[in-house]
Amino acid sequence: MKLRRKILLAIILLVFIPVILMGGVSYYSFAHAMEKKSSHFYWISLLESDRKLKFALNEVTTISNSAITQDVIQLTLKVPEAGVSYETKQEIGKLFNHPMITSYALYSKDQLLYSPNEFMALDELNQQSWYKKMKAAEGRPVWIGPGENGSIATGNPVLIQARVVKDYYSLEDIGALVIYIKPDILDQVFWEAATLKQGDILLVNTQGKIVFDKSGEHIGEQTSFPFLLEGYSSSKGYYVDKYLEEKSLITYLPSHNKDWVLVAITPFKLIASESLSIRNIAVILVVLSLVSAFLFDRFFIRRLVSSIISVVNGMKRVQQGIFVPITSRLPADDERDLLVDGFNRMSTQINELIEQVQTEQNRKKEAELQALVAQINPHFIYNSLESINSMAVLQGNKSISKMVISLGKLLRISISENQELIPLQMEIEHVRHYMDIQKFRFEDKFSYDLQLSDSLKYFKTQKLIVQPIVENALYHAIEPMEDSGMITIRAEEHGNDIFIYVTDNGPGFDHVTLLNMWNKDWGNLKKYRENGVGLKNVHERLRIRFGGQYGIMICSSPGFGSTIRIRIPKIVS
pTM of the full predicted structure? Predict the structure, then answer.
């Protein structure tokens, strides 16, 4: 077979068939991507809905938490035989004064003690399906939705919170509290949930009963989702199955309430409709590729065959390690000769790259050898510090012992910690050890205050971002002072970010000084701490790691001290 026909056949095999495969794969990949994108969209919507649901339910829980610890309720339940006076009823009513609470009832161990409205008797309460769950919760609130408590059938749906009330001092059971809440609290959460057209979001309990749904059409109905079965994955997920006789994408997410699961339903035809344009484009591309193959043969292949043969021969020489340029008989005036010229340049560049790689490999081996020679074993440092600490303790020098211990802990974070992200508590602890070491040098020259709330301790941050700022404040602000200085480090929560403030009462500086310090050439700086490199280093590392909106902000004025704010994102893991 002639080379021209081989090339034409190759074009058909390498272009036409791949285009068909590409079209098919693109169609199915796009359909799968749309399915995954939709599930992710719903997962975010479910996550946000669960967050709002938790917030809404916690508002009522806060009221009941406060109420059951009040003396008026504790005494009423402890001494039920005394009855409930008018004044007591007024006081109890104030405790449950909330627009979403429609009614409530207090039960002693043997009777319904008080309710402002008609309420179920104690015997009826004991027969409720959720009564055992309430008793097993040992005082924690139990939530029963409209689809679970049977109120949807009465035409007056309510959300119920039930809990055992315990003695404030002995923790013995002294009664029970049942609160009826308007279902509007669920309406507000689910109405704001994002859904595609004809989509729905359900709140289902672990028994498969629909507690609540956005459409309001299926509350109380029984379902049989497979993720509710024992042994099924309890984490978020999605799958395609029939729901109400219609093929649908079903996305689920366990709620913060372990008895509930959030479920999003999307008709699959809505997702598939997005892929039709990709299918049509694939068909058009197949036809165009076939026509292009024959046109390409007619107007280009015949001229290119001779050059291809020359390039193939040249490639055979390259395989043998011979980089000899192809000699062109005609001047380069079209694509055929440009191909030959390009091969010649490629051959020359490959030869040069091979030499460069060999040179780089030699340099790399030399650098690795130097790194091995210069490597310091951290365990040697720690063992040496332990020996110094032991000697200091034996000689009764507690100051040296404390300083060595602080230095050891400081080095463990600086040298031994391999990961870049560490808990904020560890970063602040690193600063504490640094300040303790500096206290030995400066003695009463300065004092410091570290403020970190428990809620922020375990958020992750980049390592060594606070200590350089503190060091800068110590040497630029505190050291030149005649009076005693003060450095305060505190962390605050702002939305999805954490702000760390480093404040000193030093002499401060103007913006001109700051700009001069910030714009210095790092390469010519002799001392790290004396030229403000720490500030810029921290700022650049934060910007590279987390993005342009993160970093440090400097506030200072002559005579009023300085405050440096470090902004980092909330990272859990």
Answer: 0.47
Q: Which CATH architecture best describes the domain 4-269?
A: 2-Layer Sandwich (3.30)
Secondary structure of 334-397 as H, E, C letters: CHHHHHHHHHHHHHHHHHHHHHHHHHHHHHHHHHHHHHHHHCCCHHHHHHHHHHHHHHHHHCCC
- Copy the structure tokens of residue 289: 């590729």
Rounded CA-CA distance 551/540 in Å is 7
Domain positions in the chain are 4-269, 323-374, 434-521+530-569
* Single-letter amino acid, residue 461: T
Assign residue 492 a region (left: φ > 0; alpha: ψ between -120 and 50; beta: otherwise).
beta
pLDDT tens readout for residues 313-372: 777 777 777 777 777 655 556 666 776 777 778 888 888 888 887 777 776 666 454 444
- Pairwise CA distance, residues 378 & 387, whole Å: 14
Closest CA relative to residue 118, chosen from 156, 173, 80, 87: 156
Helix (H, G, I), strand (E, B) or coil at 569: strand
Assigned token pair, 549: 């909106």
- Cβ contacts of residue 174 below 8 Å, gap of 6+? 74, 77, 78, 108, 109, 165, 166, 167
- The CA distance from 199 to 215, in Å, is 9
Other C-beta atoms closer than 10 Å to the C-beta of 320 total: 8
> How far, in Å, CA of 448 to CA of 503, rounded?
10
Distance CA 85, CA 424 (A): 53
Domain at 434-521+530-569: CATH code: 3.30.565.10
Name the one residue in this structure whose structure tokens are 């009465």. Answer: 154
